[in-house]
């Protein structure tokens, strides 16, 4: 398989923490250049805009879009219209409609479009999905609690419309839940706690059910200091499953069956290279739809202002 030559747009925290190391590690992908108005990497050609990067490097076959969510659509569309394949960091867009339009454009242009739900590549997720496939879900507890100051330092966009607030990490939990639960589930009620100086929630309590009336609860909080919590606990008619540490650990009926290091982005880029080689797309909007439902149907509670 020849290398996918990649241009990266948005050289921020996630690009540096994950995308660049993963591209370097995965055979099948090669970083050619970056586009960001201010940031650059040593030893990599850097441009202030996506257009300038694509003009300068016709060999770029694919663009990884790692900018804040409200910029996804215009940048992804531009890249697709220039005949490039596109990897969208999660969330794939600020709205469902724009993601659906990107799917149409990718189809028309013959480009691969990948909505990269990185948490689905956590080591325990595939096994969990397989184990749950034949079982009846009774109860699910999702606890996704992290420190916004650690993971999103100084990022004003996260508190603006489209930034999603605590749903920025919470959508990762929903990307796992929508992948492993055997039945579709839907929102019954939600409370969104919104700081008085922000547009998006800092915490959320969500209640879902499915066609068999399973009880599915999610607790998202951006104010957790100390150890971080990214856990999903599931009781079924035939045993219990605990997927913890963001999906790195999987226990079934109390016995650890998967305990592995986090390598989500290596899996994600491997999958992207395969999609490009097969001229296929992979865009699942289910996690984004759950978030949209929470914004559509949730109660708002105003809480203390968020001071960075
Ligand atoms: P970030 O640190 O704010 O990085 C975004 C980068 O994009 C910044 O360097 C920003 O520059 C740049 N940018 C802004 N406008 C641009 C434009 N028009 N063209 C090119 N670059 C532009 O944010 P992040 O944490 O990396 O998050 C980016 C995306 O990744 C978000 O959608 C987030 O949900 C997702 N994500 C984040 C994490 C995480 O742990 N942080 C994890 C997984 C996924 P300025 O700072 O100068 O505006």
UniProtKB/TrEMBL annotation:
Name by which UniProt lists this protein: Gfo/Idh/MocA family oxidoreductase
